[in-house]
Amino acid sequence: MSNNTLVLFGATGDLAQRKLMPALWHGFLHGRFDDLDIIGIGRKDWGTNGFRAKAKEACRPEDEKQWAGFEQRLEFFQADVENDASFDALCRHLEGRENLLFMLATLPELFPRISERISKIKNVGFQRVMIEKPFGHDLPSAQKLHRLLRKHFGDQVYPIDHYLGKSTVRNIMVLRFSNPVFEPVWNHKYIDNVQIIQSEDQGTSRRIEFYDNTGALRDMVQSHLLQMLARVAMEPPKTWSPASVSRAKANVLKKVRPSEHVVFGQYNGYESEVGHPTDTETFVALKAFVDSPRWKGVPFYLLTGKKLNKRFAEVIITFKPAHYMDQQTLKDTLTITLQPDEKFALTVNLKEIGQTELKSFKMEYCQSCDVQTFAPQNYEILFDEALKGKKTFFASWPEIEACWKFIEAVQSKVSGQKPQPYEPGMSGPQAAGVITEWKDYVG
Ligand code: BG6
After folding, report:
1. From CA 221, how far away is CA 212, in angstroms rounded?
2. How far is C-alpha 400 from the chain's CA centre?
3. Mean pLDDT for the chain overall
4. What pLDDT score was predicted for residue 294?
5. How far apart are the first and last CA of the chain?
6. How far apart are CA 259 and CA 409, in angstroms?
7. Residues ≥6 apart with Cβ < 8 Å to 399
8. How far away, in angstroms, is 330 Cα from ligand 1 center?
9. Active-site residue among 137, 188, 224, 323?
10. Catalytic residue at 162?
């Protein structure tokens, strides 16, 4: 038996199979989870062999010997968390283990019941709990969830935003604060606008019911997009401790304000996927401002949507044009790409040999293109950090609350309006073109 046990609720679900198991396998291959047993919990009658077989399908190992080493750490425990006797049996099964890291990859409605029961398990080491977003569905429910989890686990709660596990997102602060070339120009005097775009070409896949109750604003803006915005817009933290970084992020998130420009969209065909008429948005584009001296008047454009024309995620910082002799320069941009590759690109004005006109040239570093580079997967980083008790790459409750306040403010701008239709495979509703700076926007 290992010293650490990951107890994975929702082990038969989509997230566990698509992302969590591959991340654990990837980490195991690179020596991260040497001392970890993984117990999958689910209602289905998979058994340990079934769980291992599904995990193998999801992880597609190339080396059977290494897989055998990983597989023997996987166990499945069939339990229905809504049934007392079944849950009691699970708790007894976990008793006496040393450190327990719980991952709740289940419907949020089950969080109260699961946390109450698991917090009573008598193990000998720590108990930590990782929860998936959305954290509540509005500010009061998020606050309620926080109170509940704090009651059972104190400060040992790790709210996951998997974008914080992405290497390029983690590098935003590094880029800003460890390179003197950026910080002096990181303000309204030099920056023209900031775009944060997450565009998906896929629909809602197997999560239609969850998605229809959530919508793009809560699913993507409340978490991933605002977390990226916080890293771009935050003031330098006093220290690099997780608490201090989180304070700096929460402080800036409290200052984000939506403008009147908010467009909700819904792709044609969505209602027939849901099976009834619905006003849930599958697309959001908005313009926001950060009310701080640093960002005075600088628009932040946020855009996200499903079934758009391409899959990519980028943060684009566009600088104001300078003057070179008697010419106006082209606007420089710093683009941080999260998807499909992870890369950084800076455009600068230069002249070609023998030419007099300024041209824009791109300098680029692609982190994920070098296949030799060991690129940990998002959830792998997050499991590893939670096992070590480190919170740097998790969302904190003050940040989560500030994000919900922003979401409420956005909702108030569109209340009573129907989302605007758009064709799948296009770049969103026409009206969004007016408020976005997205260079490829075609409507
Ligand atoms: C999830 C959302 O948090 O992030 C999904 O719930 C979305 O709707 C996904 O598709 C996008 O993540 P990634 O890492 O594929 O950009």
Report:
1. 15
2. 12
3. 93
4. 98
5. 57
6. 9
7. 227, 230, 246, 249, 250, 253
8. 34
9. 224
10. no
Q: How many helices (H) and strands (E) does the chain have?
A: 15, 17
Give distance in angstroms: CA of 163 to centre of ligand 1: 9
Read off the pLDDT band of 441 (50, 70, 90). low
CATH topology of domain 164-376+396-435: Dihydrodipicolinate Reductase; domain 2 (3.30.360)
Position in ligand 1 atom list of the atom nearest CA 211: 8
Give me the helices (H) in 154-187, please.
167-177
How many CB atoms are closer than 10 A to CB 378? 21
Per domain, the residue ranges of the chain are 4-132, 164-376+396-435
Atom of ligand 1 nearest to the CA of 378: 14
Q: What was the pLDDT predicted at 374?
A: 63
Q: How confident is the model at residue 92 (pLDDT cuts 50, 70, 90)?
A: very high
4-132 classified as CATH 3.40.630.30: no
Residue 131, burial from CB neighbour count under 10 angstroms (0-12, 13-18, 19+): buried
Q: Give CA–CA dist 76/94, Å, rounded.
A: 12
Instruction: Give CA–CA dist 360/362, Å, rounded.
Output: 7
Spatial distance between the Cα atoms of 308 and 216, rounded to a whole number of angstroms: 13
In the chain, % of residues over pLDDT 90: 83
Q: Give pLDDT tens digits for 277-322.
A: 999 999 999 999 999 999 999 999 999 999 999 999 999 999 999 8
Over residues 228-281, the pLDDT tens digits come to 999 999 999 999 999 999 999 999 999 999 999 999 999 999 999 999 999 999
The residues facing 305 across adjacent strands are 199, 283
Structure tokens at 215: 């919508």
Backbone angles phi, psi at 378, to 5 degrees: -50, -55
In the structure, which protein residues have their CB atom closer than 6 angstroms to any atom of ligand 1? 200, 219, 313, 339
Ligand 1, residue 224: give the atom nearest the CA: 3
Residue type, 232: V
> Distance between CA 441 and CA 224 in Å, rounded?
21
Measured between alpha carbons, how far is 89 from 61 in angstroms, rounded to an integer? 33
The DSSP 8-state label assigned to residue 224 in this structure reads: I
Q: Tell how far the Cα of 305 is from the centroid of ligand 1, in angstroms.
A: 10
Q: What is the mean pLDDT of residues 349-367?
A: 92
- pLDDT higher than threshold 80 for residue 438: no
Cα(85)–Cα(87) distance, integer angstroms = 5
Phi then psi for residue 181, to 5 deg, are -70, -25
What's the helix, strand, coil split of the chain in %, to 5?
40, 25, 35
Residue type at 424? P
